[in-house]
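TOPIC: backbone geometry
CONTENTS: sequence, structure tokens:
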Amino acid sequence: MAEIRPYRSEDLPALYEICLETGLSGADARHLYADRRIIGHVYAGPYGVLEPESALVIADAHGVGGYIIGTADTYAFEKRMEVEWWPTLRTQYADPPAPHTAWSADQRMAYAIHHSSRTPRRIAEPYPAHLHIDILPRLQGQGVGRALIDAWRAMMAARGVARLHLGVGPANARAVRFYQAYGFHEIERLPEPWNTIFFGIAAG
């Protein structure tokens, strides 16, 4: 039986692996990256390291098979990343040269490390918390995603957070359908370089 539990520091490698194995609009991205950790540096690692109290995982007999990570305060978290997360990575990865049309997947992530984006204040202020959720195929289709979001929303509500948001690429049609079915409402669609649909919902 799969169990949702609080994140532990020893779960960090699993966060990185799951991020990679779901990094192609929900599909396996291992064939795209020469560096198996670089996508996790952007989308998973900082949450496990900087805000572990806002992370939950789901584990079964095979180990951790999914997670929900995020922050209660997007604006403060992004400021903290600029001080505590990105500087070290920027010494490890080169800022890729133009043109971006010729970049590899690794170079696109390296660019994100050097040119970290900020969530627009018009989204982060009314929806201060945000989350990322990724689940391996072996646990999909079992209500795990809904259960993880239910638990995370309750955790945020207990901390006094009123609303939360998430971003998803429009190419990830399965995720878009899931969030809509769950009850998220669309806030805004942003073009490149974001290429993101922002969804929002009340925390409780």
Notes: The first strand starts at residue 3 and ends at 6. The mean pLDDT is 96. The beta strands are 3-6, 56-60, 63-71, 129-135, 163-168, 185-190, 196-202. The radius of gyration is 16 Å.
